[in-house]
User: Fold this.
Amino acid sequence: MTSISREILLAISPEGPITAYDAFTGNLLAQFSGIRSPPKGITLAGKSVIAASHISAATASGSICLYNWWSSAAFHHIPTPEPVAPLVATSDGSYLFSGGLSGHIHALSIPSGELLRSFPAHHKPVSCLAVNDDSSLLISGGDDGSITVFPILQILDVSSVGDSVRFPLYQLRAHSSSVTAVTTGTGGCNSTVISSSLDCTCKFWSLAHGSHLRTVRFPTVIWCVAVDITESEFYAGGADGRVYIGIMKVGKRQVASSDMGVVAWAPEHGGAVIAVAVANQGLNLVSASADGSIRIWDVETGTVVRVFGQERGSIIDLVVTKGLASKGLGNDRVILRGESSSFSSKELRRPVKEIGEMQEWFNVVVKDRRGAIDTLEVAISTYERLLGLFLNQAKGG
Assistant:
């Protein structure tokens, strides 16, 4: 297996800290304390901030904790209008979206924590959130079985009054039970969305047209899904402890067979697979289970190459990240609290970290400039579709 030592796994437990593992060795790198998070309650806001939902055991009130890589304690606690569970951030880490028990989504600015807007998305609690690869669209799944798609520019348009975001771009009656996960491929507004559900299905959707493409049925509840970087295959984690792999796209004549190409890898986890993520440039898959174990799979052979995880307790979510890399070291090492450095002097390590932070901010500025025109084009395209939908509704009326 090619080394994936530059990638970090962040695992979260119901009552325990966020734990950072080296994805190659399984060694514990750091722990972030003071968190009591529900499922889907962790995300990366850019490369330097870890965001996690928190529900107070004493008051049941909700908040979001923000962490950086070099401290075990949260540097900011953001109060939320209600207890929230799923979190997702835009790719640049500037905005964070949280899903509430009321079915509302709350949009916040990071790192200030300013609440920009709260708006209704579902009739029951929001169960999962995703942002497409160009950060133009927010996709949510709910316990009501529906999927909603919102233009992010419309959400962030604070000049509009009230709940002007109440009309999503699409609202799909997707599943007969709670939506457990949503994920997208590449391609911006033209990408494919995959949703999973307690109804034992994964469904494929066209993000451009809001149309249903395909349904894949499983012998068990599916808790999580991930897409291969080539978008030729998808992975699903089952309540039976199995990791399933299936064909991403099939021909029109093959669609009738809803389980076309789906196989289960062995061995099984000792509990439900609650998270799957692609790592090491698509060469490996990471799976995490409610039994506290984490497995690294070789994608080509479907075999387990490493097992590690929590000695006590379960895992309710896991994400793969490269952390905050220090460009000054020449090998993209990740700076973490407690990690040894090739420099023996603290005075030497400090400038390296500061240079790394400055480089990250510079990269964000460059990326924002390059993405400005693309974002404008996406916005124009999105509003053209909205106008088309409104005109069709008017003609129908």
